[in-house]
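In this section we walk through a basic example: taking a raw amino acid sequence and producing a predicted 3D structure, encoded as discrete structure tokens. The instruction is simple. Fold the sequence below.
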Amino acid sequence: MTAPPGPRGVTFPACRAEEASAHVLVVEDDAGLRSATARYLAEEGFTVSETGDGNEALAMLLDPVRRVQAGPADVLVLDLLLRGLNGREVCFQLRTAGCWVPVLMATAAGEEEDRIQGFHDGADDYIVKPYSLAELVLRLRALLRRRTGAPETVLAAGDLRLDLVEGRVWRGDTPIDLSRRESEILAMLMRRPGIVLSRDSIRRAVWGRDVAVSPNALDQYIVRLRRKVDRPFGRSDIETVQGLGYRLRAAR
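The resulting token sequence is shown next.
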């Protein structure tokens, strides 16, 4: 199969077989649009799963049993307004958990600020409703072509490094001993240097949505992190943004 000619008569190769048959998870609150999108994608050769619930989507992507049942997703079409967790929360928690499935965020919110926030939460691309299903397919195939397939295993922010597999941390060449919870909080901050993360978003991602956590528990962990990764090195990279949350100072 050959694709239609591009600009100046150039013909691009047709999509590879693995792109056409990729598994797409459609997470859309509107049942009619979700069904129509799933049918169209199936006709285009994709394997499709669907849900309208943010919590359900997160389970399908992160829970080992559910992933086996549904099959691991290769790319995600993610609506912003959902039952349960909204699209931004789903994307944020996926990235926090180290899941880097490509995310195409689909929403009626077309303002620049909304798009920028979506990228900050970990989206790879953005499509504004109402959209053409043909354009949706092209964007999905572009995301699939850009996949490296290599999972992120080491985070780096300036001279601070965190090994996600072994949970080890270094400042320069100096190893730092952190607890599992401290490592999880630090990983969230390192994934978004310069971006303010609210206390609620950190608590939900690290402790879970349904776990009761003392209001000052996170603050105590932040104090311990500063004692270990900042103060011994004469640094103050973990910043408190009054009334908003915490951020890791972006490396200069």
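Looking at the output, two observations stand out. The chain has two domains: 13-146, 154-248. Residues 13-146 form a domain with the Rossmann fold fold (CATH 3.40.50.2300). In the next section we compare this with other chains.
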